[in-house]
Amino acid sequence: MRNQLNIWVVGGDMRQVKLAEALADDGHGVHTFALEQSGEELPGRQENGLDGVALADCVVLPLPVEGEGGLLNAPLSHRPHPLPEVLDALQPGQIVCAGRVTDGVRALAEERGLTIHDYFAREELAVANAVPTAEGALQIAMEELPVTLHGARVLVLGYGRVGRATAGRFAALGARVSVAARKYADLAWAEAAGHGVEHIGELSGWLCGYDLLVNTVPARVLGEKELAELRKGCLVIDLASRPGGVDFEAAAQLGVKAIWALSLPGKVAPVTSGRYIRDTIYNILRELGV
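Now predict its structure.
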């Protein structure tokens, strides 16, 4: 990878602000667009439009790339930016990186001769993001529970990257952690790590003993039936991406406190999250021979 690149960071939240700072610290020429309301002094050149973006060696779009109504995800901009107009400003064959790229966005890009590299789909970023996600879950639990985590009974649903990181960190603080998963291999790994285990399809009758449930499965696993079994005061934290794993309407009707904690890396550790994205983009550029 070349030492100095012309990189545009377009839209996003504080993760992209910190990404731009990290890129500038590495000596790259950085241009930012649609980040003007970050409340911080942005590095490099702050652009009011997309003139010149076609000359960039790499364009970094946000995570997720698309907001509501077909707009660029740009919560730190003072005005909306239709995503098709942003893509129109790019050059066919240009290196474009974005996070959580939907089929619809990919189709828009292909119509314009663009290939979008989804950095959120990269395994190295998924593994790295599991750490701030797990730490964010700890923070929420300590703020919301009326008991200490030491000695609390915690059930983690799912034992993928986030589930493993979360279960290990709660156990390190003295919580009595159990793991529920579908795959017997995952249950074996959880048991090897010292956790109790439950099959996720056989939870009925076992949920009443927990102080905290942390879901990491992006599919409905906690419906009205399961939520009705929870003890009074049990907290539910859903870390899963959309559509999530909790019936929040049923939780509200039952008086169960359930928190859908989306995008925790960007909320609890934007500096670290920005560096993770930077490292992943560097990996993509190396693979492309830049």
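The longest helix spans residues 123-144.
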